[in-house]
Specification:
Length: 217
């Protein structure tokens, strides 16, 4: 079956600037319906690379996923999938704008990468307010994502951004001691030792070496 060209169904904008309160500018990709009506927003903000293709950069995990679920995302060409975020080809036809933000110091956003820091949380707050005040936005911003994109939902929700309307934190630790480092009271730091160099730091390097990014037109 030949699927329709998804770029004809969406407005796609790359590397839109989002000014932070300290003057630094983060970069966001936006996928939204071709309509003059304002729409609600589904947003993620984190260090995994808003333009890094799931199938390429996370090939081992992708191959396993497709082997286990060959019918994944029916009707989608899977052309805009990134790690642990929603598929724009599914959500945009449902009437949502999908916004992906590279957090400070990761991929296309400049600055110092400082994971789970108060600065990153404030940046996420600013990004929510930016998304909630665009001409194409209804003013309602929802957060949806897995793991890192879930944890930072808990963090930014404490700041109560006025335009944050909903959040779906899936598989996100809410207590770093009990959920991450001390499962059942037993020290478990191997995940963090492996995760940072393989995920967060790798995305920092991808921002410096743009050839590692797979950016669709």
């Amino acid at each position: 079956m030949t699927l329709p060209d998804p770029t004809k169904e969406m407005v796609i904008e790359r590397d839109l600037p989002i000014a932070m309160d300290d003057g630094l500018v983060l970069r966001a990709d936006v996928y939204r319906p071709k309509t003059d009506l304002p729409v609600p927003v589904i947003m993620t903000s984190g260090p995994y690379g808003k333009g890094v293709m799931y199938q390429d950069h996370y090939k081992v995990m992708w191959d396993w996923l497709i082997a286990q679920h060959p019918g994944l995302l029916p009707g989608s060409s899977r052309s805009f999938l990134t790690w642990e975020t929603v598929d724009p080809e599914i959500w945009v036809p449902w009437g949502y704008a999908v916004v992906r933000v590279d957090s400070r110091g990761a991929c296309r956003s400049p600055g110092l990468l400082d994971i789970f820091s108060p600065r990153e949380t404030r940046d996420c707050y600013n990004a929510i307010e930016w998304a909630g005040t665009r001409p194409w936005s209804s003013g309602k911003v929802g957060l949806k994502g897995i793991s890192y994109y879930a944890i930072n939902q808990w963090h930014v929700a404490q700041l109560q951004p006025p335009h944050l309307t909903a959040m779906v934190p899936w598989e996100g630790a809410a207590d770093m001691y009990r959920d991450w480092y001390r499962h059942g009271g037993i020290l478990s730091n191997k995940f963090m030792e492996l995760w940072y160099p393989r995920r967060a730091h790798e995305m920092l390097e991808s921002g410096a070496v743009l050839g590692k990014l797979i950016l669709k037109p």
